Amino acid sequence: MQVETVLSDEMRRVAHDLAAESYAVLIPDLFARGSVGALCVAATMRTTVTGRGAAMDDLEAARRRLADRSEVDGTRLGAIGFCMGGSFALLLARTGLYKISAPFYGRPPDLPRSCPVVAGFGDRDVGMRGAPEKLTLTGRAVRRLPIHAEYHEASAHDAHRMVVAFFEEHLACS
Prior knowledge:
The protein is an alpha/beta fold. It has helices spanning 9-20, 38-50, 54-67, 84-93, 131-137, 153-171; strands at residues 78-82, 100-104, 118-122, 141-145. The chain has a single domain, classed as Alpha/Beta hydrolase fold, catalytic domain (Rossmann fold, 3-Layer(aba) Sandwich), CATH 3.40.50.1820.
């Protein structure tokens, strides 16, 4: 998940890279209910705090759609998200409906119970100060990544390897 108003090249790249590793990928459109405006974005952001709202309903509908596909094992689903989508990936970790969660950024909610989480945060991002520590204290794996203002290929490959290794460890057939 990455909350943007259009499907970006970066979202396509991440989806393509995960599909190349034989993972089924679905990118839900959290703004499909109407025109994207300040109120729509604000409501979606509010959902990252409350855990309730249209965006969570849409994410659950997307999860059910993916889980119902014959080629997908609905008991082995994961969530990955970037920016606001990272907050959603963390919220989904608490639902009991996902085996793993991989947020990149996002404000960590309280995680008294959750599926295994591996998270990536920029090592010099002042805005996320305290977030990696909060996740680490709950026993979640946190990776600090070099922060760049734009796409950085080496960091993207490093993050991809980290996520795929985590997926392989936690989503493998038993």
